[in-house]
């Protein structure tokens, strides 16, 4: 997805809305297949959220930089009659804390991303379109490089390609 808007505030709102929609789509519902039915789906979701978290510190820093520029130019006033520099200093302190926490979030998501990587789907198979590849609905690792649901020969027990199967068949 390529975004072409020149409005940074709209991009931030769009990112927030995308996370909101993700939250709604992945909300657990009774008697329904989870929105992330395979480990590969969770792997991809964690990866995307990790990337988002990794990019937040720069975005937060640039918000602080914009305030610094406005302060330097003398273009800020405070509605409470106080020195705007005091307010900017408070904002900067909170932004720095937010950047540090975003770094921590990115690190935790990186660890979660690594921790989920060995998991594979072992539940019931309902049809060829639901058949997980060895990594759980990820891109097939065979020479044809096509998407899962492919005709690659797989072990019926572990769904791994023959070279990676450890089953006693």
Low-confidence stretches: 130-141, 144-149
- Provide the β-strand percentage band: under 5%
How many strands?
A: 0
* Computed structural class: mainly alpha
The residue-averaged pLDDT reads: 84
Helix content: 40-55%
- Biggest sheet statistics: none
Order of helices and strands: HHH
> What radius of gyration results from the CA coordinates?
23 Å
Q: How many alpha or pi helices?
A: 3
- State the separation between the terminal residues, measured CA to CA: 44 Å
* CA-based shape: elongated
Key terms:
169 residues, mainly alpha, single chain, 0% strand
Q: What is this structure, in a nutshell?
A:
This protein has 169 residues and is an all-alpha fold.
Outline the secondary-structure elements.
Blueprint: H1 8-25, H2 39-72, H3 84-116
Helix pairs in contact: 2-3
What does this molecule look like?
The longest helix has 34 residues, at 39-72. It is built from three helices and no strands. Residues 130-141 and 144-149 have low confidence and may be disordered. Helix 2 (39-72) packs antiparallel against helix 3 (84-116). With 169 residues, the chain is mainly alpha-helical. It has helices at 8-25, 39-72, 84-116.
